[in-house]
Amino acid sequence: MGLMNLVKAALVLTVVVIAMGAYTRLADAGLGCPDWQGAMAS
């Protein structure tokens, strides 16, 4: 029974990671610094 709980937890976490990635992509939150090399230059 322990293995099934581990598989279920892994499945839930995988779906959460995919959902958060989709949200980040759709909300353009990943574009806070589109030119990171230029932004990091001093």
Automatic annotation (TrEMBL):
UniProt-listed GO biological process terms: heme A biosynthetic process
Keywords tagged on the record: Heme biosynthesis, Membrane, Transmembrane, Transmembrane helix
Principal subcellular localisation of the protein: membrane
Species of the source: Vibrio maritimus
GO cellular component: membrane
Transmembrane segments: none
Protein's recorded name: Heme A synthase cytochrome oxidase biogenesis protein Cox15-CtaA
Lineage: Bacteria, Pseudomonadati, Pseudomonadota, Gammaproteobacteria, Vibrionales
Coiled coil regions, renumbered to chain: none
Membrane topology field: Multi-pass membrane protein
Pathway: Porphyrin-containing compound metabolism
Localization terms from the record: Membrane
